[in-house]
């Protein structure tokens, strides 16, 4: 799978990527192509997780896992390629819910996860087992073992994240976002330990939705402080290219939350948590504005449409991070 990865990676140290689903999964795949299994840890948002058909669904963990295994459907942006939908059709025939799309192969992931969780395994252990089954050498971690649930406050009331995102197709106007369960959830101990580890050479905030993918991770108690205190530079990649989200509601949400839908507004939103920011070539005109925020700035091609562009962006980010001297 990682045929291009020689045992001698030119990069030294550990790399941590914080991610949501679609955009984050693409960059995670790029990083996995240039970093060894021992070097790369990916921590994914779990605030989108929910129960459906009696099964525990972890959309972002699964998007990353499928991308790392090269089994993801690129066009849809989620789920497995060569998927079929007979279970969903049968569920419709029985009069069951089927607004959340679960494919026939994908359902196996959710069944096994639910079984193992019911047996008492941690979500990290279950994720490790699933990744091992798919031959993934890198570490994929949930942001927490706790139960955090994103609620989207909209003009149509307070919605569960998947109701807003999938059932209502992100159509309601967003007024705010809440994370239920935050008070009792803790940053995954392995993630907290890695953030404090001197061998960490870069922390990458993937091009994921700032409000519903990255914020739940940053909102966990102690996360912002650990990021600021980390020896390694924190580099974020813009999920906005030329005023638009590549996929999903990020730009729409920014406008609804009274922010300009620009790459520089995302940098300002992350504020002093980040040391460096990667903007797309199409947003080069914002580079000075981002630099004026005190951030190291890198302008690059950030559209990831195939393995080569994912790998290229990963290399650019790692080179950029290696040149940043942490100021704080
Ligand atoms: P979700 O949890 O499934 O919504 O996934 P993410 O939050 O990780 O990904 C959604 C974000 O990824 C959107 O804001 C997209 O604009 C961004 N995104 C998707 N593909 C790309 C890409 O190729 N390049 C960049 N820069 N951003 C991308």
TrEMBL record:
Do you know which InterPro entries this protein is assigned to?
Answer: CofD (IPR002882), CofD-like_dom_sf (IPR038136), FbiA/CofD (IPR010115)
Database matches in SUPFAM superfamilies: CofD-like
Reply yes or no: does the keyword Signal apply.
no
Q: Which CDD domains match?
A: CofD_like
Q: EC number(s) for this protein?
A: 2.7.8.28
- A Gene Ontology molecular-function term? LPPG:FO 2-phospho-L-lactate transferase activity
Q: Does the keyword Isomerase apply?
A: no
What is the name listed in the Swiss-Prot or TrEMBL entry for this protein?
A: 2-phospho-L-lactate transferase
Q: What is the lineage of its organism?
A: Bacteria, Pseudomonadati, Pseudomonadota, Gammaproteobacteria, Cellvibrionales
């Amino acid at each position: 799978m990682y045929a291009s990865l020689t045992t001698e990676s030119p990069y030294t140290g550990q790399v941590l990527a914080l991610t949501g689903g679609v955009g984050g999964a693409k960059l995670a795949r790029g990083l996995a192509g240039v970093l060894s299994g021992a070097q790369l840890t990916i921590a994914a948002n779990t605030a989108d997780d929910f129960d459906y058909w009696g099964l525990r669904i972890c959309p972002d963990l699964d998007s990353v896992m499928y991308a790392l295994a090269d089994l993801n459907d690129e066009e849809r942006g989620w789920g497995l390629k060569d998927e079929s939908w007979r279970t969903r059709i049968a569920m419709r025939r029985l009069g069951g819910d089927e607004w959340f799309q679960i494919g026939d192969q994908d359902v196996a992931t959710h069944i096994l996860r639910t079984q193992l969780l019911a047996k008492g395994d941690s979500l990290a252990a279950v994720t490790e087992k699933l990744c091992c089954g798919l031959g993934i050498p890198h570490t994929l971690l949930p942001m927490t073992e706790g139960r955090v649930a994103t609620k989207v406050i909209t003009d149509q009331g307070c919605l569960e994240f998947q109701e807003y995102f999938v059932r209502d197709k992100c159509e309601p106007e967003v007024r705010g976002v809440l994370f239920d369960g935050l008070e009792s959830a803790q940053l995954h101990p392995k993630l907290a330990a890695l953030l404090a580890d001197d061998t960490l050479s870069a922390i990458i905030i993937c091009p994921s939705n700032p409000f519903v993918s990255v914020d739940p991770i940053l909102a966990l108690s102690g996360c912002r402080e650990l990021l600021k205190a980390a020896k390694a530079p924190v580099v974020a990649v813009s999920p906005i290219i030329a005023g638009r989200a590549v996929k999903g509601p990020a730009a729409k949400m920014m406008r609804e939350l009274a922010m300009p839908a620009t790459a520089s507004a995302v940098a300002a939103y992350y504020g002093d948590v980040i040391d460096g920011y990667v903007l797309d070539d199409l947003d080069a005109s914002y580079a000075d504005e981002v630099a004026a925020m005190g951030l190291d700035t890198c302008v690059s091609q950030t559209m990831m449409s195939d393995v080569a562009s994912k790998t290229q962006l990963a290399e650019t980010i790692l080179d950029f991070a290696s040149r940043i001297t942490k100021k704080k």
